[in-house]
Amino acid sequence: MNILIITAPSLLFSLLVPFVFIAIRESVKRQRQEIIKDLQTVFHLPGAPNRDDIVPSFEFVKYKYFFKRADDDNHERGDFALYHWIVSSIPLVIFMFAINALIANIFTRRVLGLDYGYDIASFPIGRPLPIYFWVVITAYAGGFIFMIRSFYRAINNFDLSPLSFVGAFLNLATGMIVAVIFVYGVMHVVTAAAPETATGAMGGSTQSAATSALFGAAIVTAFVIGIMPELATRNLIWSSRLRYYKKDDIEVYKSFSAIPVEVIDGIDTEIRDKLADFHINAVQNLAAANPLMLFVETPYGV
User: What's the pLDDT score for residue 62?
Assistant: First the structure.
């Protein structure tokens, strides 16, 4: 029973994340389908014998949320099956369960002082945790925030799919692995340059301003890498100065700029932030957007 103190909450939390977002997606789909049905009464004449009344912009919206095609009724394409969601969520759930169990173990033993005869991280309670554990926890926190934001935007744009959970697992694992490798390399460089400072940062009794600064930098770096794994990986490859690796021309970015949607009368910061969830970050994005799609997916009128 003692092990259930760690495994039960960790497993429940890991299962709850995909379940909640899958349920929200289904609720959003049904709600928007009702809006589309109402729009259909406006754009389509009931009992029309031909398709002259079809509005292309509306058809794009309808086909995004209804999988049945008017020109091929005999081959109806359905939504993702339940087993698609379950199978795709397994890697993410297992990975989150392992990290959650580690964090729960550390919290119950070192914060709550509970001794239940089972220890995942076998380090004496009287000694501080190695910096690598802090890096793993911090990178996981950053990656988790990135994952939740990605799922939220995917639901808003109705592009949450089983592949989204596989991608979330890859991003979460990549960010944590890159963070550990980066800090591990930096710590060894510091060890070679100043052994006494690195020793303090690794959990020894020596505390100094340099040690605190190094620990803080490691934690901040791990969080940034966790929340932006692709950017961190790209910069690590750039810093290696691989001869034939294609790099972005930074000077090009200085020659152009995007016009924010706030320059339009009636759009304030709150509306801009809402539109950003639908990948509308500039005036050009808004000009090219389908107004009927925005009506269905946002709280704003046509």
Answer: 83
d(CA 215, CA 202): 9
- Kindly list the averaged pLDDT for each block of 10 residues, start to end, along the chain of length 302: 75 93 93 88 62 72 75 62 92 94 79 60 64 85 92 91 93 88 69 52 51 74 81 68 64 78 86 86 89 86 74
For 46, the token pair is: 């009931």
- Separation of alpha carbons 242 and 274, rounded Å: 40
Distance in angstroms (rounded) separating the CA atoms of residues 131 and 53: 66
**CA angle (20 as vertex; 18, 23 as ends), nearest 5:** 105
Burial of 26 (0-12, 13-18, 19+ CB in 10 A): exposed
Cα–Cα distance for residue pair 295/95, rounded to 1 Å = 38
The answer for residues whose C-beta is within 8 angstroms of residue 57's C-beta and 6 or more apart is 290, 291, 292, 293
Contacts of 218 (CB under 8 A, 6+ apart): 131, 134, 135, 183, 186, 187, 201
The alpha carbon dihedral of 143, 11, 184, 123 has a sign of positive
Q: What is the pLDDT of residue 88?
A: 94
Dihedral sign for Cα atoms in the order 40, 42, 48, 50: negative
pLDDT at residue 227, as a whole number = 83
Q: Please provide residue 237's backbone torsions phi and psi, each rounded to the nearest 5 degrees.
A: -70, -40
Q: Choose among 284, 49, 21, 6: nearest CA to 148.
A: 21
DSSP symbol at 258:
P
pTM for the model stands at 0.76
Which amino acid would we find at residue 174?
Answer: T
What DSSP designation does 192 have?
H
277 contacts 289 by C-beta, under 8 angstroms = no
Give the pLDDT score at 200: 47
Q: Identify residue 172 by its one-letter amino acid code.
A: L
